[in-house]
Amino acid sequence: MSVDLEWVAVLRHGQSTGNVAREEAESAGADVIDIAERDADVPLTDLGREQAKAAGEFLARRPPDLVVTSTYRRAWDTARLAAPDGVPIVPDERLRDRELGVLDLLTSHGVRERWPDELRRKRRLGKFYYRPPGGESWADVVLRLRSLLRELSADHPGARVLLSAHEMTVFALRYLLEGLPEPDLLRAAGGTDVPNGSVTAWDRDRDGAFTMVLAQEIGHLHATDTPPTADDDAAEQLS
């Protein structure tokens, strides 16, 4: 697709209490992840806030023109902590995490035990197009991001835009900006960790093509002695 932006980047939110709870539930072999809040309200951990601040030091060296953030609390709080002074922050619900419908709050074990037919349906349809009942497919997330990029291109042509968002956003942008076909995208996603607080970025060349110039960069975490974490979002873990 044609995107009239000079630079597009994704800052994955810092570690959240949901990331920690999911890891604990998966390790324990539980069916359900113990999270009291709705997904939109899951906060950052103390470490997650430190990761966001470290990203802010990195971004201050070459600030974006605009930060657009997921409306989910963990991403919005990350944006507030990381955005350089004077850079506007705009929330947009199209950047929210992938919705899991009936699979929400279930571990991998829980999905196998409670929804075996859904696992069979996912294998048949494929990861990109499978939509859990009441939830979204990868393709659904791509569609809303396509809409957002078109709007940003029209309203802020030639801008440097940072998206404060989720793990899934990185893969959706590889599809949209790099034009990766579905099989290549899924292979890349299967072999890629997107650490909390990492930055992935693309530059546009003179011909309008985008090239990834930062791949899940976490040098800023190491530089500030901030421990990196690579907990999967539930939307990616159960996809």
TrEMBL record:
Q: Which UniProt keywords apply?
A: Glycolysis, Hydrolase, Isomerase
User: For binding substrate, which residues are annotated in this chain's numbering?
Assistant: R74
Indicate whether Zinc appears among the record's keywords: no
* InterPro entries in the record: His_Pase_superF_clade-1, His_PPase_superfam, PG/BPGM_mutase_AS, Phosphogly_mut1
Return the broad EC class. Answer: isomerase
Q: Which terms does the record give in the GO molecular function aspect?
A: hydrolase activity; phosphoglycerate mutase activity
What's the EC number here?
Answer: 5.4.2.11
List the Pfam families hit by this protein, alphabetically: His_Phos_1
Q: Does the keyword Isomerase apply?
A: yes
Biological process (GO) annotations held by this record are: glycolytic process
Q: Per the similarity annotation, which family is this?
A: Belongs to the phosphoglycerate mutase family. BPG-dependent PGAM subfamily.
Its protein name is: phosphoglycerate mutase (2,3-diphosphoglycerate-dependent)
